[in-house]
Amino acid sequence: MDQMKPIFIKGHLRFQLDGQWLEFVHQPISVYGVTGLQWGKLSGAQHFGKRITAQVRIPQAPKDPLQFDCPAVITREVGLHSESLGLHFFLEARIKNLLDSLISLKGFYPTDYVRKYPRIPSSHVIQTFPLRAIVTARTTANSNIPADTQMVFEVANLSPNGALLMTENQNSLGLAPGSKIRITLEPRGWFSKSVTVEALVCRTTDEIQPQTQNFIRYLGVKFSRIDGSNRAIFLELLKDILGRMKLQPRG
Predict the structure, then answer these.
(1) pTM, whole model, 2 decimals?
(2) Class of domain 120-247
(3) Where would you tag: which of 33, 223, 226, 243 has the fewest CB atoms within 10 A of its CB?
């Protein structure tokens, strides 16, 4: 298997909120921001979506440490057994390029939660990659929406045993870790067959769309059941996607 591209680098960050400074050291930082921070005295209900200015310091730069300030918004992530906060960075192009280059040079790919099957990131240039899916709520347990409620999600990434989905449909806020759903992947390109699987919501991540102020809900899901015919179609689809990925130019 090819070595996975680095996506994080360790760094320190601090920001001020409600008159107090919060500091986090040795955190995995990406060009998109940081996740997995402890709420501490902050509250997910009260502080989610707040805009702040993050002060970031990356000690591992080849010469002087990379330091920058950037606007950010507080995000929240809820799993089956935990809840954490994150920061979504809004980086200017120059800083984003510097950070991306430094991650490629000195960064790492996480090994503490390596999946059996790495996720395939969404790509519109791969002819058959399903970009959208219909999600149907299956049970009212762990959910605050009626069973059989349907929503359209975008597919952020995909693997043989799970996916990351996202939507601005506010009905999705009724889904929580532990919710059971049905996912139907929309056919795309020459691949005309849809794939339907049963899944369990393992985590939710919430952000706010800066222009519209809509909630953006991400669902990290694990496939729990797929019948024989859908399994065969899904494996055929994955084989086609992986084959097309090998033909994509690198870099």
Answers:
(1) 0.84
(2) mainly beta
(3) 243
